[in-house]
Design goal:
30% helix, four-stranded antiparallel sheet
Length: 168
């Protein structure tokens, strides 16, 4: 930890941007997009499967050395698939990608359809592909894990920073 001197103008900007309960360090980390990937709310996919995600919201997706802000579980899946495409892990040759259940449903496809067209979906376009995002938070995580397994890259480092909401 270091101590620095800052001007009154900088102090006022930190105060304006701060949220209740945040330290000055927290504010600056948020502004500079610095996250601690080892904190208690950052998990790999396997660890997330043992958590209650019903009252959770993803904050960051961390894949290899890439950190991306995300707004929702759906947005997280879009960012994940986009990364897989950009890094050439996901190509037309390995499409469709089955959902975690591996039963007549695709997580990623070139068309807005499952193998069984009667199954419901909420399709989102990511580049030239479509992803089904009609899942709860835990199933989104299962789909990411299943995708890595089906693409034969199960050891790819994927972590998600989570904010847990308390409504009780």
């Amino acid at each position: 930890m270091r101590t620095i001197k800052i001007s009154e103008e900088v102090w006022n900007e930190i105060a304006k941007r701060g949220k209740f309960g945040e330290t000055e360090d927290d504010v600056l980390k948020r502004i500079f997009n610095i996250i601690n990937t080892e904190d208690s709310n950052t998990f790999n996919l396997s660890d997330l499967l043992s958590k209650d995600l019903n009252k959770s919201k993803p904050i960051f997706l961390i894949i290899e050395n890439m950190k991306q802000n995300v707004k929702s579980w759906t947005h997280l899946c879009e960012v994940f698939v986009n990364y897989m495409i950009e890094k050439k892990y996901l190509t037309k040759e390995n499409i469709p990608v089955l959902s975690y259940s591996k039963k007549n449903k695709y997580f990623i496809n070139t068309k807005k359809e499952h193998s069984n067209p009667d199954l419901d979906a909420e399709w989102r376009k990511v580049q030239n592909y479509y992803i089904d995002t009609k899942y709860n938070s835990k199933c989104h995580v299962k789909n990411l894990k299943a995708t890595l397994e089906q693409l034969n890259i199960p050891d790819l480092s994927v972590k998600i920073k989570i904010k847990f909401h308390k409504y009780d």
